[in-house]
Amino acid sequence: MLKKISLFLLFSGMFQLYGQENSLIIHDSAQKEPPFLLEASYIGDVYANIAGGLKTGGGYMGMGNLKIGFDTEKARWWKGGCLFINGATIHGKSLSENFTGDLQVASNIDAGTHVYLHEFWFRQEFKTASFTVGLQDMNAEFMVCENGAEFINSSFGVPPVVSENIPVPIFPLTGLGISAKWNISPKIRWQAAVFDGCQTPFENNPHNLSWRVCKNEGLLLIAEFHANIRIHHLDGTYKIGYIYHSGFKELEKESQEGTSVFRHSKGIYALIDQTVMHNEEKNRRIGLFTQIAFCRNNKMKPTYYFGLGANCHGIFNPRGHDILGLAIAHVHLNGKSRPHETALELFYKWKFNENVSIQPDLQYIIHPSLTEKPLKNALACLFRLHIDI
After folding, report:
1. Is residue 44 helix, strand or coil?
2. Could you tell me the pTM of the whole model?
3. Which residue range forms the structural domain that includes residue 309?
4. Is residue 307 part of a domain?
5. Are 86 and 117 in contact (CB under 8 A)?
6. CA geometry: angle at 88 spanning 102 and 90, to 5°?
7. pLDDT by residue (tens digit) across 363-376?
């Protein structure tokens, strides 16, 4: 309870500081923008499993975020500095665990009920490089697929072949790390990061305020190479990455001796975002994407994954504010007890403006594989509301 009150006071205090006329914000007539940036957002998913899976039924999940940024240049301190805080609340009954029974997780906000600190980092930018240190979400910078991010299924973010084999600091539980970017040229970028090898679970860390780096938890390293390529005047982004974990040991309470959970887990991945049609006069665009990932840690864990899909922008809206998307995500599982899982997703997204959108979504999951018990193919529908303030 004390930690919840502390978090509330922290965010409330920031809002009060921003709103006071005689606050500490350095702002005068010569400065156009204040150093503080405040943003809030909410995502709500109404869902129902129509057939198959564990059982039919429906429910609701939601996620709210409050983000606070501080720019050192706008505060007239020094150039390139940025402090960022992201507080989050998630709630609702899990669609995948209670209804569809899929391993890939049908909704990317499906994570239980928590009020916690999602990100807290400082970044310093230079001419062609930047460094970030603190509590970070790896998927905010790594394994990002622009077209895939429009879909609701979690696999189009970080593939399950990575998240199931390696304890990666992604939603909902982030971790301490140091990351760097280097823009080698306008078309080529390299980025890398080192993270704490294992995040303290919510059972012992309910608000993600317990940060520690232990030798027995190892280290996580990731590196990614980007190339921006134009084909017939159409933009494309090509990424290839490598991820490595040095190994993880669990300490026994009595003897304090470490028992190896896994050793030297590693994987590789590639992402492609390519525009194949762009009509600027009618605000219409078609973008394709592909995801491929290989990783192995345990005989019963996934070994490889591939995803591909297409997004069509501006089909019915002349301003290009609507998107129709279709994609497939497939994960290959080792062992004979569980079949390989494939998810098909179809959605239509309508943006009323820059702040509000709705997204009806349909997913057909072939061989849901969350449990070893064979399950019938699941058909789930979701309706997402997204609000940014």
Report:
1. strand
2. 0.88
3. 35-388
4. yes
5. yes
6. 40
7. 999 999 998 889 99
